[in-house]
Amino acid sequence: MKIEVVGENRLRLLLDGTDMAEYGLTYEDIDYSRPQTQKAFRNMMDRAEDAVGFRSDGYRLVIEARPATDGGCVLTVTRRPKRKSKEPLRRGTRAMFLFDSADDALDARLALSAPVPIMRVGRGYVLTVDPAGEPQRNILQEFGREIEA
Fold this sequence. Notes:
By secondary structure, the chain is of the alpha+beta class. Helix content is 30%, strand content 32%. The strands form two sheets. It has a four-stranded antiparallel beta sheet. Strands 6-7-5-8 form a four-stranded antiparallel beta sheet. The longest helix has 18 residues, at 35-52. It is globular, with a radius of gyration of 17 Å.
């Protein structure tokens, strides 16, 4: 596994086919709800902290996974400050929605009539709208569910 610091709050983990086999993962079955993925990711983050000092304690992590040509994958990890539990979600600002299928994500984007990027994350798809008002949220909630931005 290669570890690259991309910025103060961003890290890139490059895993080749051998790394994936050692973790017992394939790109297709990376899903953070699976214990195998959770265990592998915790190990990767421990290695990243030891190697480059990238700490994840006290942060929310946004993880983007992309397949690599050699049977591996590239994980981009962005850390964000944790939101205090009593702090309300800010309405009228950026919102992220998770969709179970590409069709749902594409239908939601078409309903918005806006060129909004869609990212594949694990087995789902994420669409970010900035800023998001109630009409946009209502449309997007027909196809997916809002997640913490």
